[in-house]
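Structure tokens please, single chain.
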Amino acid sequence: MSRHATRVLPLLLTAVLGLTPQLVQAFAFDTVVGPVVLQHQTAGSPVVWEAPRVTMHLNLGSPPNGAPLANGTTSWDTNAAEALALWNTVVPHFFTFDTTAHNPCDPGDGFNTVGFTPDHCGDGFGDVIAVTRKTYGQQAGRFVVTQADVVLNAQLCWDAYAGPLELCQGTLGYAIDLQRVVLHELGHVLGLEHPDEAGQSVAALMNRYISDLDTLTPDDRLGAAFLYPQPSLAASAASAAPDSRGGGGGGGCTLRPGSDVDPTLGAVLLGLAVVCLWKRPPCSGKPSEGCAALPRVPRIHD
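Here you go.
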């Protein structure tokens, strides 16, 4: 390596490592451009609720024959309520709930509902696990969320458990943990979107694909604190370690269960790769080789 490259490498690594916190705090949200609400944005004014107090109606029932779920509970609503409570540790008192049954496919009934449905409100789910359907309106001259419904794909193998994803007994598919999926969808109710669809690479429950993550990460918490700022909330969210639900959190890669990515190590490798490419002769124009696509797991939603 030349003397020039030797001098440049420490500076380059320092610069890349300095960017690491920005890569970690990469939440996304909805914003408005003209009359259009754009999803998965990282700049602009976020579209949120006018009053940060939302009642969700839960009437998910219980597993067939009252059989206990993997985490020992016997009610889907119990697990959904745990997801509500976890977001309330970030934005205090944001969510309340009752168990009155409403139709999650009715966008104009004025009720915010979490419910199982056999299809996506008349359309097919495909490989989608769940969808949050939001209704917007204008108050005091700005766009706000006025209703949000969470539709869960009733055709899947559902369970409730902490830790890495598990296979559904007797099948080759995954058992879908209701608590982490509802936790993700409630993030959309708050106003958060998918950081990976905003071009970010970050460990976050709010990424598009279900993964071994079973709880909120610091990135998820920072995003909620950004949408609904409160005294000292952002600072506490930044320093908070991921919560646990009686089990260990899994990896952070939303494309393949069990993977784990350390942001600092990734930054170092990125810096080394840049130096190597800088020293490399120009590309011959031939297609690159040796990069295989990772297997995909079910999408939480579109």
